[in-house]
Amino acid sequence: MRILVTGGAGFLGSHLCDRLIEQGHDVICLDNYFTGSKKNVEHLIGNPRFELVRHDITQPVLLEVDRIYNLACPASPVHYQYNPVKTIKTSLLGSVNMLGLAKRVRARILQASTSEVYGDPTVHPQTENYWGNVNPIGIRSCYDEGKRVAETLFMDYHRQNKVDIRIVRIFNTYGPRMHPNDGRVVSNFIVQALQNKDITVYGDGSQTRSFCFASDLVEAILRMMEQTQSIGPINIGNPGEFTILELAEKVIKLTGSKSKIIKEPLPSDDPKQRKPDISNAKKILEWEPKINLEEGLALTIEYFRRGL
Fold this sequence. Notes:
Layout: E1 2-6, H1 11-22, E2 26-31, E3 50-54, E4 67-70, H2 77-82, H3 84-105, E5 108-114, H4 141-161, E6 165-170, E7 173-174, H5 185-194, E8 199-202, E9 208-210, E10 212-213, H6 214-226, E11 234-236, E12 241-243, H7 244-255, E13 261-264, H8 279-284, H9 293-307
Parallel strand pairs: 1-2, 1-4, 2-3, 4-5, 5-6, 6-11, 7-10, 8-13
Antiparallel strand pairs: 9-12
Helix pairs in contact: 1-6, 3-4, 5-7, 5-9, 7-9
């Protein structure tokens, strides 16, 4: 098939491009390099089945494709808060443009949504039928509400125009090719530990997250696209739940770092707990994550060790 991956030079997008090329597809990787990098896909450049196009999905694009994976959007607080108007435009206008393309060429399209649609959840673990607890005017709203409106657009294009859609809600993901300065907790801790700097924990460190390794997540996305039982949304993530303090301690141990843990005030609207209910992913996609946190952290630390 001919497949378009928006945000294809990003952390997750590049891993997805790798897998699609391995499967024998022709891949068009679209990226404006706001958070993505050519370095993530340089090993694919020169492959006759891979095409790299610099483009911003807030502008329309004319292509002939069979599948669209819509991953384009800054996904870490540092990046999406840097230009919040641009962030919400990417979700809103990007979705309109990609859905319009899917409608014209009758392509199946998958939206990479996020656990942030649940906001600071009052239901734990989070199931897909939970509507969330999101602040619409906070500093994270550009991302949270942008992704929520993207889901609305996908559902409305499906109902009104019969566009063949899929929606996944991605929980915290980590692995090689994460940006060292993206402000995400795993990359922050690893970079600080490898440099023997103090590890910064916000709040008392009791807030929880669930961490899914990139290869596990890509496998779930591929399965979601090709199954015909459900359009979603379906949660994808690792249901193993860890406090931020536990994560910091694991990183110090695995890096052999001399870093000390220091505590800073909690940012506003920071969720206190996050854990996916993946019952639907297990049942419909026959998927669950295989790589545990220590194993995944070791692979990620090795990647950062080579690059720092």
